[in-house]
Here is the input.
Amino acid sequence: MDIPDDLIALERAAEEQRARLAGLDGDEYDQQFQAWREAAQAVQAAIADHATATGQSRYALEMAVKRAVRRSQEDPAG
Here is the structure.
């Protein structure tokens, strides 16, 4: 499956926002949670739009994007 770079970048940004939740509490947590939520919503909207435009399964595309990001995090060289 051909995954557009912009979807990978959006998912990577959402994962970075999620990772920043670690160790936070109170207002800091709430603010970071909102930032993560907004980033995650942007990813979901972009995936849905791309899936609709290309006739792909939204679920299959989402899983492919997540695998691509996870793979790049595990192997920064590749």
User: Anything to note?
Assistant: The mean pLDDT is 94. The CA atoms of residues 11 and 43 lie 6 Å apart. Residues 26-54 form the longest helix (29 residues). The helical segments are 5-19, 26-54, 58-74.
